[in-house]
Amino acid sequence: MMASSYSAKDEDGHITVSGPGGGTLRNKKPENTAFKQQRLPAWQPILTAGTVLPAFFIIGLIFIPIGIGLYVTSNNIKEFEIDYTGDDTSSPCYNCAKNFSWNNTKSCTCTIPFQLDQPYESNVFMYYGLSNFYQNHRRYVKSRDDSQLNGNIDSLKVGASSPMASRKKKKPSKECEPYASIDNKPIAPCGAIANSMFNDTLKLFYNDPNGTSVPIPLTSTGIAWWTDKHVKFRNPVGTNSNLTAVFQGTVKPVNWHRPVYELDTDPENNGFINEDFIVWMRTAALPTFRKLYRIIQKKNNMAPTLPRGNYTLVVDYNYPVRSFEGRKRMILSTISWMGGKNPFLGIAYITVGSVCFFLGVVLLVIHHKYGNRNNSANISN
Amino acid sequence: AARRCVGEEIWVDSRTVYIGHKEPPPGAEAYIPQRYPDNRIVSSKYTFWNFIPKNLFEQFRRIANFYFLVIFLVQLIIDTPTSPVTSGLPLFFVITVTAIKQGYEDWLRHKADCSINECPVDVVQQGKVVRTQSHKLRVGDIVVVKEDETFPCDLILLSSSRSDGTCYVTTTSLDGESSHKTYYAIPDTMAFRTEQEVDSLHATIECEQPQPDLYKFVGRINIYKDKEEPVARPLGAENLLLRGATLKNTQHIYAVAVYTGMETKMALNYQSKSQKRSAVEKSMNAFLIVYLCILISKAVINTVLKYAWQWSPDRDEPWYNHRTEHERQRHVVIRAFTDFLAFMVLFNYIIPVSMYVTVEMQKFLGSYFISWDEEMFDEELGEGAQVNTSDLNEELGQVEYVFTDKTGTLTENNMEFIECCVDGNVYIPHSSGTRKSDEHCTYGSGNKDYCAFCLSLQEYEDLFFRALCLCHTVQVKEEETVDGIKRGIHQGRPTSFYISSSPDEVALVEGMKRLGYTYLRLKDNYMEILNKDDEIERFELLHVLNFDSVRRRMSVIVKSSSGDYLLFCKGADSSIFPRVVSGKVEQVKARVEQNAVEGLRTLCVAYRRLSQSEYQEACHHLMEAKLALQDREQRLAQAYDIIERDFVLLGATAVEDRLQEKAADTIESLHKAGMKVWVLTGDKMETAAATCYASKLFRRTTQILELTKKRTEEQSLHDVLFELNRTVLRHRSFNCLDFGLIIDGATLSAVLKPNQEGAGHGNYREIFLEICRNCSAVLCCRMAPLQKAQIVKLIKASKEHPITLAIGDGANDVSMILEAHVGIGIMGKEGRQAARNSDYAIPKFKHLKKMLLVHGHYYYIRIAELVQYFFYKNVCFIFPQFLYQFFCGFSQQPLYDTAYLTLYNISFTSLPILLYSLVEQHVSMDTLKREPSLYRDIAKNSLLRWPVFLYWTCLGVFDAVVFFFGAYFLFDNTTFTSNGQMFGNWTFGTLIFTVLVFTVTLKLALDTHHWTWINHFVIWGSLLFYVIFSLLWGGIIWPFLNYQRMYYVFMQMLSSGPAWLSIILLITVSLLPDVIKKVLCRAMCPTATERAQVQCWHHLHMKLEV
Questions:
Q1: N or C: which terminus of chain A has fewer CB atoms within 10 Å of its end residue's CB?
Q2: Transmembrane segments in this chain: where (chain A) (predicted)?
Q3: Which of B888, B1086, B1091 sits opposite A136 (nearest CB)?
Q4: From the candidates A128, A141, A327, A356, which should be mutated to test the interface with B, based on the most B CB atoms within 10 A?
Q5: Is B505 part of any known ligand binding site?
Q6: B373 and B904 in contact (C-beta within 8 Å)?
């Protein structure tokens, strides 16, 4: 790839010199080692048009096919997105959004019909997407207590009345403030992230051409990182194996409808190891983000997971986004080896590959025009 | 009362030492025991107790450390985005490493101090020799020192085991001069032989308070004898034995301590010199200020935008993200200020704490290559190059003006007597000459008509040869033979030789020996000469009027066996001729000038016969001056001036000083490298000019411009200057001639004198500089030491502010060595003062070539890349964080994890650049030596100029934009995994960080032209380390962390295909512009260096093919 040449410089042995003075001569002669004499053998590449040329062509030749491959893969991925924020009067969720109040105990339900033009063959992944939601705000990101989530029972203890004692005891971390405790009772799980957990319930129904509405089975496990579910998040293990008892003395986050031990009926998906919760707790990098909600498993090899046709999305509208001009979406997507739909990566590869190729051509011209002159040129002028 | 000496009345700054702690007899001054420090030497800076506070204080006085301390404190106090650990840990690391280094050095000093302070010393107490420890010595103690022992403090010699009251001393450890110097005992006490006798001495010594000058001492001893008036004797530097010097050739001496401990001259000389700062350091500081401005403006922009953005309360505090009550109650101004500080903290890495450490390490370690260089090792001296400061390594690559001394620097300072001219007759000793035969002295065809009133030729001859045999300060060194028997000069010549601080004198005395007059020795104040007829003549040496560079002559007053008082004087022609009243001045002058043109060093010899009364008068003058405690120098000069006059000219001598090996080649290379070489010498113009021609400083084609006293006597200085300027300007347009300028000291001081005639005539300084700028070589002759420094200063202060280098070997060069940006000392024959005061010391002038062209060049490109790269990598590092603020509501959310923030500069990217800056060789050493013109490529700080800096910064910003927006678009709203799971913000940051670490490391790899195994090891090693660290850091739930945000983030990222593809793509895109720029620049307008690289490469390829 690059011009290279090995200039191994000869390494003489150590030369000892005894001057005419013999003993009087201070033997300060530096050692004749390659390192000390700065004569280590070295590869001395130089970047010239001639040497970089092949590299550019090679990059071009590798990148363009990769890019095309990525682009095609990305295009084969089916993705459907529906916005159900409901700030539009025509939107089915308009009423729910408008009448939202934190005091509503009964959730508002809205149904959104939609149509899939193509059948979705493999596993379909159902996401919810939020916009203009700053999950990456510093105050928000740090507002959690990983020790509590890891099942540390001390982080659930009631803070003692005296401030000295309370400092000693591991209460919910002060990072959770102002979502750490209510009336001196620790919140479980504490912090702003947990408190604002996405709590819309999304259900999918397939409207059979014959008129019946078939609910589509949604798998709620396997949506969180395996390591998160099994290592990072753990339910506190108290004297009692009953979660309700373990969380005794704690209060639920202010905005939650149910306490943490009632998130799911399945004990493997309840409490801190509830996967919806874990997914939410992984804060997104950008204010517009999507999070995996459910997986629609492929049933058998014959039928597509989601056949072409009409569907209904039923939303329990609990999550207010209008106050900060946010938006809510539901996304259905298939997945390939390279993840979801992402034309940018393929396009970027093709572009960079082409640019490299083009530059290779330019360099070729330059190399022919200047290269010879260069080599014959004398340094001294 | 004691007899007072002249000028003593107002002398308050003196001390009185009571020898043996005995009170003076009643009637003398009251005995006030003065308090002096004990003889403890404390070279250590710290004690066990004050080490931590004092060292910390010292370290935080440095502005950079202080800045990081402030950042750290801000992090501790306010709620900042990054934990205090991120800046605390590197700072702690830096401070600790420095403290350990300094502590270790101090411990070594403590140990050394201890061994010195506890070494045994013999003291005379109550007539007995008592052994005690060195640090218990007090001022006034009488000390016994045996042969080869080192003096424990500054002592006044009372008596010596030698009958003539002298002792020999070497001062190797003080100033490096290995010659034996003679010191004299006080005449009144030199007869003391036993402890009892010494102890019976009742005397006080008055002397000045300690001062650091090793060669100056004034004092007076008052000796009290029973009931008599005390006898006062002058004390000078010749009586003072300095601590650190070693007694030689003398069995033992008795001496009294006058300065002890930290007041000894050696201790006073510990003080370090003033700091020189390199041009690179100045650029670095300028860049730092730019970055500080960028940092502050970034913080300000973000703070302002933050408050603009969160104007609406739903953005400020959406329902999901409330502030705490405590925070809400804070005043908005305080909040804004806190936010500003938080942004400062977030972006503070743009000024990296590790840069200072790396630069310092680079300089410190890099400087070893100079002392390790065996090409700069001189077999004869047994010494290689020495680095006294590593701060200026890169300045060696920036030199524009070289100021060199002539004698001992360009020339060998190995003098050989060539001829002498007595009264117009020339004598040339033959090398194989024996003493007796006359035929070896060729009588020149001088004019032989002697005037009747003058002395006969024979008389002249006698006087001339005797003058040269007597008028010197040469010692005869008696070398011990194998049997251990000391043999004098008369017994066998090979066993003895002459030693003197001036090689000219040795050459003259040896020349005289070849002409038949052998100086044997100085014994009991009698100088013995073996004359042509093998008879020993004895002259009583009465006074020596020592040589100094202002008078430029020396004299002796002797009493011949016939009782005549004779004053012999030898000196530079300019200082002798005005004082001559008779003699063949014209003929001698003609011969002197002819010799000077041939490049020989000439001295004139004159004498004066003194009558008894004249001698008494001279004695009186001298004694008065010598006894003065104040202005002794000045008084002595006056006395000398009175005595040294009315000379009869005897003749002149010529001594050749051969050019140093390869001096011409070196000068030629320096010229080719674009440096202007100035020779500054005290020599005569003709001599110096001849040397300049020989050393190719002037070529045959060089047009010589003269700006000398001779010319300015004919025309006014004004006219001469303007005429020269016109000449230079006229020819510059043709660009075919190169000019050489010769200027002498007198004219120079006229030029430099501030113009009093008003602005009408302009400033001579400017015109002079203008002329100099157009001359490739300048010779300044007849320079006083201080004038040398003035010249350097003048050039330094001229409007281009060129980098100057001064090189010299003698004490007279010290001022210019200290003045120039880089001072180089030659370990010469005229002692070690120049080498001690220099920044670098080399054995020979020829080593300057490698020093500048190879080492200087390397150091410069290395440090330039180091500085630029450091800024670049931190722009790459921090700018994405800045961009991220726009996407996280200006909330100071860091993009990277704390561990990455902390370790980026101290471990992931530190070693490759450090090792690069130690071993990089963009062109091979041989090429650099072969093509001195490559030096021009880096002249004027070319790699650290603003455009280059701007390029690097832009490259950094571009890369940062690629990292951030690349990741942004790739990450935006899509799934990266094949199982549909999503990544969070830490993965986003880790992806960017991975791209960042790889890009900056590979960028350095692209810049590396010299891939040794070390480079391979550190570059690939740090990348590997990054990966391994990340795997480890994310692989465990770390119990001591209160967050686990990095848990499995890196592994998850690696398990995703698109992440890999993105990383590869982003690295490629980031590196592309730099590669293209490099290739295009090389193809379109290659620099000489780049052409040399290509040539070298082709050369090697051809060799490989064959």
A1: C
A2: 46-72, 344-366
A3: B888
A4: A141
A5: yes
A6: no
Q: Do B980 and A292 touch (CB under 8 A)?
A: yes
Q: Are B249 and B203 in contact (CB under 8 A)?
A: no
Query: Using CB atoms and an 8 Å cut-off, which of residues 373-392 of chain B contact chain A?
Result: 373-375, 377, 379-380, 382-384
Task: Residue B893: list chain A partners with CB under 8 A.
Answer: 136-138, 141
pLDDT of residue A64: 96
pLDDT at B534: 82
Contact between B1043 and A28 using a beta-carbon 8 Å cutoff: no
Whether the per-residue pLDDT at A376 is higher than 70: the answer is no
Q: Which of B154, B339, B405, B959 is catalytic?
A: B405
Are residues B980 and A295, on separate chains, in Cβ contact within 8 Å? yes
pLDDT in tens, B773-790: 888 889 998 787 778 888
Chain-centre distance of CA B331, in angstroms?
A: 57
**With an 8 Å Cβ cutoff, is B226 touching chain A?**
no
Whether B38 has a binding-site annotation, put simply, is no
3-state SS record for chain A: CCECCEECCCCCCCCCCCCCCHHHCCCCCCCCCCCCCCCCCEECCECCHHHHHHHHHHHHHHHHHHHHHHHHHHHHCCEEEEECCCCCCCCCCHHHHHCCCCCCCCCEEEEEEEEECCCECCCEEEEEEEECCCCCCHHHHCCCCHHHHCCCHHHHCCCCCCHHHHHHCCCCCHHHCCCCEECCEEECCCCHHHHCCCCCEEEEEEECCCCCEEECCCECCCCCCHHHHHHHCCCCCCCCCCHHHHCCCCECCCCCCCCHHHCCCCHHHCHHHCHHHHHHHCCCCCCCEEEEEEEECCCCCCCCCECCEEEEEEEEECCCCHHHCCEEEEEEEECECCECCCHHHHHHHHHHHHHHHHHHHHHHHHHHHHHHHHHHCCCCC
Is the pLDDT at A19 greater than 50, yes or no?
A: no
Task: With beta carbons less than 8 A apart as the criterion, state whether A278 and A122 touch.
Answer: no
Whether B405 is a known active-site residue: answer yes
Predicted pLDDT at B563 = 84
pLDDT at B11: 44
Residue B897 CB partners (closer than 8 Å, separation 6+)? B986, B989, B990, B993, B1033, B1045, B1046
Taking the CA of residue A210 and the nearest CA in chain B, the distance in Å comes to 32
With a CB-CB cutoff of 8 Å, which residues 976-1035 of chain B face chain A? 976-985, 987-989, 1006, 1009-1015
Whether B322 sits inside 8 A of A179 (CB atoms) is yes
Q: List all residues 6 or more positions away from B1057 whose beta carbon is below 8 Å from its beta carbon.
A: A337, A338, A339, B978
pLDDT at B762: 54
Q: Cβ of B880 under 8 Å from any chain A Cβ?
A: no
**pLDDT for the residue B953:** 94
Q: Do B1006 and A47 touch (CB under 8 A)?
A: yes
Q: Which two tokens stand for residue B910?
A: 């530190």
Low-confidence stretches of chain B (pLDDT beneath 70): 1-12, 24-33, 172-180, 227, 269-275, 430-456, 477-496, 501, 549, 629, 732-737, 754-762, 829-831, 1104-1106
Task: State yes or no: pLDDT of A195 exceeds 90.
Answer: yes
pTM: 0.80
pLDDT at B1012: 94
**B217 three-state secondary structure:** coil
Pairs across A and B, CB distance < 8 A: 313
Rounded to whole angstroms, how far apart are CA atoms A367 and B741?
A: 47
User: Which residues lie closer than 8 Å to A241 by C-beta, 6 or more apart?
Assistant: none
Task: Tell me which residue of A275, A254, A255 sits closest to A263, measured CA to CA.
Answer: A275
Question: Is B809 annotated as contributing to ligand binding?
Answer: yes
